[in-house]
């Protein structure tokens, strides 16, 4: 799909540690859909991009290319347009890049202590990580004018003891359309598992459609996958398998 890392810009924030933390949230867009697989899961349904206010949270942001593939319906429609109309339609609706935000947030005192130890040592993660944390990835494709088209997100909670994952579960996902006729239609599939090398993987497949004038021009099946490592770090990619 789209995460070949050409012309990437990356930022990272490692915040100070205290005994407890809180997170801020914004209003959930009216056309968003969110789900939670665990009643005690941290709910970020109202956040398109995580805040930087939670003590101990690590956040990274990338801008990566997006590979667009036209559907037969798309090709049929644009063939009826004039050259100017087609250029406008494609400029408005084709994703060319996307912003990807990954956050890793301690959920308990043990995790905050592990994060504090890492901060004190000048490291990204602790040498011997323990505790529970939540990892969330958010993907937001944009058109050539850098206008956001739609957003989808995936979240996993995990616990570890001495760099070994002891519990891993899917804790939420969602998305919404932002521009034009983009509509978020929910999660099509989700998977989770602990694999070799001491890390866990979870993913959701999201369905997003471009609907204009009652006509569906393209349906996207976007996969969002989180690789949760037992040292408290997490990364993302677009693969659709564990």
What characteristics describe this protein?
disordered N terminus; mainly beta; 11 strands; seven-stranded antiparallel β-sheet; 3 helices; four-stranded antiparallel β-sheet; elongated
Write the layout of secondary structure elements.
Blueprint lengths: L9 E5 L18 E3 L22 E8 L6 H7 L4 H11 L3 E10 L2 H12 L10 E12 L7 E12 L2 E14 L4 E14 L3 E14 L2 E15 L4 E4 L5
Antiparallel strand pairs: 1-3, 2-7, 3-4, 4-5, 5-6, 6-7, 8-9, 9-10, 10-11
Radius of gyration: 19 Å
Our estimate of the beta-strand percent is: over 45%
Supply the number of structural domains: 1
List segments where confidence is low: pLDDT < 50 over at least 5 consecutive residues: 1-53
Shape: elongated
Overall mean pLDDT stands at 75
SSE string, helix = H, strand = E? EEEHHEHEEEEEEE
N- to C-terminal distance = 16 Å
Largest sheet properties: 7 strands, antiparallel
> How many individual β-strands?
11
Residues in helix, %: 10-25%
- Count of helical segments? 3
Spatial order of strands in the largest sheet = 1-3-4-5-6-7-2
